[in-house]
Amino acid sequence: MPPSLSRRNVLLAGATASAALALSAAPAQAGHGPRRPFGRYGSPSARLTPRTLYVHPRGAGDFTTVQAAVTAATGTGRTLVIAPGTYRETVSVDADRTDMTWLGASQDSRDVVIVYDNAAGTPKPDGSGTYGTSGSATTTVRPDGFTARWITFANDWLRTDLPGTSGTQAVALKVQGDRSAFTHCRFLGHQDTLYADSLSLDAFARQYFAHCYVEGDVDFVFGRATAVFEHCHFRTLVRPDLTGAPYGFVFAPSTAGANPRGYLVTRGRISSEAPDGYYKLARPWVPSSDPTARPMLTVRETHLGAGIDAVAPYADMRDAYPWQDQRFAEYRNTGPGAVVTVPANRPRLTRAQAASHTPKAYLGDWRPYARHR
């Protein structure tokens, strides 16, 4: 079976196994307490806080779907504790749900999976057209102050679902709010997996991803947010539909020209299941909605595996906006994909310049890295 076809089953394996344990109705053994599907985070009868809601796929919580809990969680500072399981649904969080927190109850991101299979080219049920890139998102998060821990966000749409379609973007998570933090989360998809964006062109949303895993093929981390990725693992996938390189691009930032900070990748790694050199590190996205965008990406102290094309790691998305005119830079990266063979193709920071490319410099007075280790 081709790798892309098997992935739909593989990505859910962790959630299925854990859910079977958490949802078992068998009585507890003598000498042991009852099973606790919400771990150390209480239960509907013993809430963590009065503003905590519990999600359980078989009815042991307040709600059986994440969207139902989000809809009920009005106001600010609400917490959702999500029991192990696979939640096949789309979830949309309105901007007024500020300072919301989602917790995977088992503290293992493989156990809680929020997944759906819309793509940009998927027809809407009402016949009004297709979803488009933003509409394809399994989960869309708009409020400021959003936090998620130990959760998998996935889009398991495959190109074989709509053969020949040009709308192959299929977003797992679109996040737009300022002060949005994700720790120990997974983001699974193929094209446009993680959309780190903002609510408007003049909103410089700050986002922080720590100890996360992201996989995909084409532009699978993209958008205009000021986003810091610390200790994250990015993995590039095989493309059975292609016979040669390049298979795709890891990053496609679309930073607004007025924004002094784009994407920062620090102390992470990029691995690949594709042949050596079949992936580009990045290409700039200058969308038609913002022709003045000047994409920015700094990758520093990160291991670049052999899947990255070391000779020409960057490419253009459009001839009118060459990558050399954008804000791309590297600093002290390691691995076969970081070997400098053509210096002109590897823009590098000096030590003095690197001092201004840190989580602190990018995130300002918001310091999630101090508590989300």
Mean pLDDT figure:
92
Radius of gyration from the CA trace?
Answer: 21 Å
Helix content: 10-25%
Describe the main β-sheet briefly.
10 strands, parallel
Structural class: mainly beta
Strand content: 25-35%
Task: Write a brief structural summary.
This protein is mostly beta strands. The chain has helices spanning 3-10, 13-22, 66-72, 132-135, 351-354, 359-363; strands at residues 42-43, 46-47, 52-55, 79-82, 85-88, 91-93, 101-104, 112-116, 139-141, 147-149, 152-155, 173-175, 180-183, 186-188, 194-196, 206-210, 213-216, 218-223, 226-230, 233-236, 248-253, 263-266, 269-272, 279-282, 296-300, 303-304, 327-331.
List key phrases describing it.
ten-stranded parallel β-sheet, 373 residues, eight-stranded parallel β-sheet
Q: Could you walk me through the main structural features you see in this protein, from its secondary elements to its overall organization?
A:
10% of the residues lie in helices and 28% in strands. The chain is globular. The protein has a 10-stranded parallel sheet with strand order 3-4-7-10-13-16-19-22-25-27. The protein has 373 residues and is mainly beta. It has helices spanning 3-10, 13-22, 66-72, 132-135, 351-354, 359-363, and strands spanning 42-43, 46-47, 52-55, 79-82, 85-88, 91-93, 101-104, 112-116, 139-141, 147-149, 152-155, 173-175, 180-183, 186-188, 194-196, 206-210, 213-216, 218-223, 226-230, 233-236, 248-253, 263-266, 269-272, 279-282, 296-300, 303-304, 327-331.
